[in-house]
Design goal:
Chain lengths: 470, 470
């Protein structure tokens, strides 16, 4: 993105703060309006979590943070903004009033997204000066990590504006799910609602506690859904007989007795208290801040594991990460890698495991390879470099959340040989954390044996080695 | 476990096969009864998947596989078995007939578990010779990976037998959730049912396709549920105000219009076909076998990432893994590590990333440390060894699913110094895959500086180095 983008966040709190963090950490300027006197503190806390978490998702450094500012009026906040996100309380009269204030000042081609889970876009658009500008963009907590945004428009919506909104959401690592027709509660919350209702019954009738229900979910279908959702999971369960067969078999179950339990249990004070007490027993030994960190660590670790598999939300991460990958610049040494140490790279000693140093140097070498023309396409065409020997010196400890840089010199580059001397430094103060002398040989991925590189790669390797001799 | 354990699997298929794999790969002998002529092939396929997947979950080798046999009669299958798992079709008359056959032969203290999702244990026990012996042990597909087992008994059940069943399930890496009162569909399937009903409506009304619903789940609440389930997630969402406040706020939503959509849509042939067609569009480019492999790879990678975090199903894995960790034996070299290369360790070149060699050698060194007394407790008390320098030679490629062994000699051990020479070999043929010369220094975890080891550790290191000189 060449133009500097600006987001206006109307209404802070956990959701507004999550949006702010998502835009800010992707390089946007962010302006915030929230009359709550605690708004700065609350948003500061969400931002603290996000700054710790989000950069750990990627194997490249994120863009430089945008500028954050707090404003006293809606008008000042939204003027000239590209994206305006409304996350005010779920009351239609309040929302309509806010839209009127926004639209009296904002650009006609700005996007006005609402975080509402309770209202349909046609309800939001009622009485607006430019109804087509307002759409539902419903996020999921934590907004700075989870990619899903339910995007809902109406017949009044400008298709070009919806497309533009999709593009912008994608550019900050989100996944806009375009909902085909508006419906109460959009899609995901309808499922949450159905499950919540059932959970209330189970607790009320003494069948299970909050912790037992959580375990029933996360040790079974929860982790299954995290990667395939509902239908693909059932497709696999159906086996060779196919999806139609599975549904025909499964259908009659819907008439079984338990499906009759569909009325809403009365949410008495007693039931609410029972749930609260059970939840205290389960999780009361951790503060909300600790639970948030635990949740974020789990989510990042799982999403990174799916990223390596190239599936589900990990596929989205890989797509977004392509936009973060910089082109290597000439230099002696070259700045071959910039990244943050993720939460899943530490070991029992509380620091980055020594194996991960090897991974970082291997990633740095991959960037050098790309620079000399041995890039992804080259590898896809069956040629690559394999590492034959490394000597690594571990000079200082490295911790999760730290930004690091690798500087690389090519110390040998002739024929099949490619030798790199890497230095990994802490970005903050330049301290050298580790060095690696890495010796590689060019191979054919077909024969898995050494062979000469393509002539243009050989020439670039030789030139780089010569430049780095100086 | 000292005694060799035996499981009898009555009814093969995906679920019975999954049980068979779970027991077999944990070292039990497994006998199978299934009159289906295709049973051997079908169970062979499940076993193939399980043999590929399950060992990758752990950082230690699993026990040696038990013996697998197929039998022609229920009597022959269950005689002398410790665990009898019934996974026959969901018809009560069939199940009763099978229990009568089983109980005429099996030991009185054997456990008879049923995989049923549709029947309550009191229904299963009706008319049985020893009703207290029969319990629901309801698993989740794939049974060889997912830990959840819903265990349900009745007042007739022998509490000691339920405890024994819990213990045995835990010993093969499963998580028995003891359901407090019997109820139709137990716990998890009630949630699945509620979600399924809602999904049918969304498809029928043209709100979303199967793929859009899967995305709404896995890019949002699905991955959240995989680690915290329902209630802990909401506890975090409720923030500082607490769980009671959250429920009081959330409660009224249950009266909102969308919660009225609770009747069951008629599952016409047309609707079934619509779902099947959408599912073909979404996933039809992959065979069921490919989808299974993809699912298993995702699940293993996510569970391994939770294992590293020590949370959710990863916490269970860590507990189970303790039983797999062998005591190191004297030797020159010592066999310091045996493990399978997991699916999340490979890179763009299609083989194990060089960083993971470093991790394996680091893990091997940890075992040597434990052998000389610098074990987990020692580290918890603030002393450890940090690696200062490694020289690694990569001699052959290593792939996901391969079993490897590390053999280690201590080449220097005096004062603060500990130096190991590791060789990593392919278990199958003993080929050397890599070597690592690893130099470590003893440190205080408090000052993060070098210091002398505890005297008994120093003495053991010195003795080991001397023994390995010979």
């Amino acid at each position: 993105m060449t133009k500097k983008m600006t987001a206006a966040i109307i209404g802070g709190g956990v959701i507004g703060g999550g949006w702010a963090a998502r835009f800010l950490l992707n390089g946007w300027d962010v302006r915030i309006f929230d009359p709550d006197l605690q708004a700065q503190r609350k948003i500061g806390e969400v931002l603290g979590n996000a700054r710790h978490a989000l950069p750990m998702l990627y194997d490249y450094a994120m863009p430089e943070e945008g500028a954050l500012s707090f404003h006293d009026t809606v008008a000042e906040t939204v003027e000239g903004a590209d994206w305006i996100q409304e996350s005010v309380p779920e009351r239609l009269d309040i929302k309509h009033k806010v839209y009127a204030e926004i639209q009296s000042v904002c650009a006609e081609d700005a996007i006005i997204g609402s975080s509402t889970s309770g209202y349909k876009p046609s309800e939001l658009q009622q009485g607006a000066a430019r109804p087509g500008q307002i759409m539902v963009c419903h996020p999921f907590n934590p907004v700075y990590i989870l990619p899903l945004i339910e995007m809902v428009g109406t017949e009044m919506s400008d298709p070009a504006l919806l497309d533009r909104a999709s593009e912008l959401l994608t550019s900050v690592g989100l996944y806009p799910l375009r909902v085909r027709k508006e419906i109460d509660a959009h899609i995901a919350d309808r499922f949450l609602e159905a499950v919540w209702r059932e959970a209330l019954w189970l607790i009320k009738d003494g069948i299970a506690t909050t912790e037992e229900i959580d375990n029933a979910i996360r040790y079974g279908f929860g982790i299954r859904w995290a990667q395939m959702g509902l239908f693909e999971t059932y497709r696999v369960a159906g086996g060779e007989a196919g999806m139609k067969h599975f549904i025909d078999q499964f259908g009659p179950c819907l008439q079984w007795p338990w499906t009759k339990l569909m009325d809403v249990p009365e949410l008495t004070d007693e039931l609410a208290q029972m749930i609260a007490d059970q939840s205290d027993d389960q999780s009361g030994h951790l503060t909300i801040r600790q639970l948030e960190r635990k949740r974020d660590g789990n989510l990042i670790a799982m999403m990174r594991s799916l990223k390596q598999q190239g599936n589900a939300s990990g596929r989205l991460l890989n797509e977004h990460e392509k936009t973060l990958r910089p082109e290597l610049q000439e230099g002696n040494p070259m700045l071959s890698l910039r990244r943050t140490i993720p939460v899943d790279w530490t070991d029992a000693n509380g620091h980055m495991n020594e194996g991960r140093y090897g991974q970082i140097f291997s990633d740095a070498a991959e960037e050098v390879m790309a620079f000399v023309g041995a890039d992804d396409d080259y590898v896809a065409n069956g040629l690559s470099y394999f590492t034959v020997e490394t000597t690594t010196k571990y000079l200082a400890e490295t911790h999760a959340g730290e930004a690091v840089e690798v500087h690389t010199r090519v110390t040998e580059g002739k024929g099949k040989k490619l030798r790199c001397m890497h230095e990994m430094r802490r970005a903050k103060d330049g301290e050298i954390l580790a060095t690696c002398d890495q010796f590689m040989l060019h191979v054919s991925l077909e024969t898995r044996r050494t062979c000469d590189p393509a002539p243009e790669v050989a020439a670039r390797v030789e030139a780089l080695a010569a430049a780095h001799q100086e």
